[in-house]
Write a structure and sequence with these properties.
208 residues, two-stranded parallel sheet, 3-stranded antiparallel β-sheet
């Protein structure tokens, strides 16, 4: 939603990794070695993959970073990259949401097998059931989005997020945002914060 409202680039760590693995690129083969063995991809490699996509044009326009950074090491790598290009990080947005709401959201998530677009059976359904609006690919539920694994993932994510949240708080960059309600309501709150801080002046469709 932010990508569409603000005409931003959208970079998803998972989407980029899956694309490179499908292409069997040298980068994809490196990532695959860790993923297939159940290991975390090293911070240095994650930073290299993500920053390779941060072109001067994208940095001028602005980028939504999705799933990155996840660790303090990744955060430091991103900041070093941005500072060299005189585009220092201005803020980190922390979407706070009750665990029960997250379980319902993740339980209804569907992903396009072809382009990686994400939908939700209740909040963001496709125009045709089971078919991607963007490319016509088939939609499916990822194995890690099944109810039996969601709560475990959330517990791990919360534990991993604490040092990163503390890091951005110490640097005075953290902005906590209420992520409850619909995705549209959360988007409106984000846009209001962005305008209040002077990060944007307008968007394609001003909220009420």
């Amino acid at each position: 939603m932010l990508r569409e409202r603000l005409a931003l680039a959208h970079l998803s760590t998972g989407e980029l990794f899956r694309r490179e693995i499908r292409r069997r690129s040298p980068l994809g083969r490196q990532v695959s070695r860790y993923v297939t063995q159940g290991f975390l991809v090293p911070d240095a490699l994650v930073v290299r993959v993500m920053t390779s996509q941060l072109t001067p044009a994208r940095l001028r326009r602005g980028v939504v970073l999705d799933g990155f950074p996840r660790t303090v090491g990744q955060a430091k790598g991103l900041e070093a990259f941005l500072e060299k290009r005189r585009r220092p990080l201005e803020a980190a947005i922390f979407l706070a949401c009750p665990p029960g709401v997250l379980v319902r959201r993740l339980g209804g998530r569907q992903v396009c097998s072809r382009c990686g677009a994400i939908y939700h059976v209740r909040n963001m359904p496709p125009r045709r059931r089971g078919i991607c609006d963007r490319c016509g690919g088939a939609l499916s539920v990822r194995a890690d989005d099944r109810a039996s694994t969601i709560r475990k993932r959330l517990a791990v994510d919360r534990a991993q997020a604490r040092p990163l949240v503390a890091y951005y708080r110490r640097r005075g960059l953290l902005h906590r945002l209420n992520g409850d309600g619909t995705s549209g309501e959360a988007c409106v709150r984000a846009l209001r914060l962005f305008r209040r801080r002077g990060w944007i002046r307008h968007d394609r469709a001003q909220d009420a």
